[in-house]
């Protein structure tokens, strides 16, 4: 008798279990009971940040989570993204995710997606379109705020060290020209130059890559012998710039008064924060790549027929080599002024981070 009861209980548990799995799967199944098909047009694989962003999207939109992900790496070329989106439309995907390499040039293809009734979610950088109904929602980070945070940190740091603003001789290794990250971070620096009277020697794109960052730094070092601040618009450019500076027999660090070159960067990747810990990068402003779960939450809300916010900003921190500067005040893209803590980096913090 006992065995029979146990067998019945087990059968019921199994059935319930199956139902719960089915239920969770059906949460992400389209109306026709099939897994949701997601077409993701990714910028490329240009940086550690991008790799972490891709990993976040792939691990979220996995088969076991009930999705079919069609992934395309555009190698930082917009024409490849346009082709990928048109393929997604042909394949009648349920959602298109787009991480746009630059802000302009998307109106036509997004109109085609709209005409096909496929919702588009913009991830990371922003699109500059004539009609913002061409995309359903956007998740990303406030690049202008990131640039302003870095500029305020530099002003506070130089002031604390008694360095006159006109004695800061800055080069800006920019990101991919026309991308939201480059536009915002460059603007943040240029506002600082305007506001504080820094000497901005040169600006040139490092394409967010280590190789190009090194090449640009090498040429700037040949042109200028008084560079003492290098503003890198992402960590991979900073890695390249540091190699070039050290190959030229100079030293990166925080002691400008004694001839060290101060490097500022963005992304706070694991390797970037390790360079902060060892004093090679003085300040690294966070840009969070882990958009997978956020994109999924928006898709689930849309599947449930809920309204979603048009713009979904992600909060980000600031890390520095030391505690010379403890907070900065900066205004974000929504014109809201905020005070942001600056965290001296430790190995524990690095070990505890998700990317
Ligand atoms: C930032 C993102 C940038 C990163 C770079 O939002 O678009 O692109 O800062 C990446 O590392 O290449
Ligand atoms: Zn960012």
Give an overview in words.
Its main location: other. Pfam families: Peripla_BP_4. This is ABC transporter substrate-binding protein. Residues 1-25 form the signal peptide. It is built from 11 helices and 14 strands. It has helices spanning 2-28, 48-60, 78-90, 107-115, 143-160, 180-196, 210-223, 235-247, 270-277, 292-303, 347-351, and strands spanning 36-42, 67-73, 95-98, 120-124, 137-140, 169-174, 199-205, 229-232, 262-267, 283-286, 311-313, 318-320, 327-331, 337-344. Strands 7-6-8-9-10-12-14-13 form an 8-stranded mixed sheet, sandwiched between helices. It has a 6-stranded parallel sheet with strand order 2-1-3-4-5-11, with helices on both faces. Strand 6 (169-174), helix 6 (180-196) and strand 7 form a beta-alpha-beta unit. The termini are far apart. Bound molecules: beta-D-galactofuranose and zinc ion. Beta-D-galactofuranose is lined by residues 46-47, 49-50, 124-125, 141, 179, 181, 208, 234, 266-267, 287.
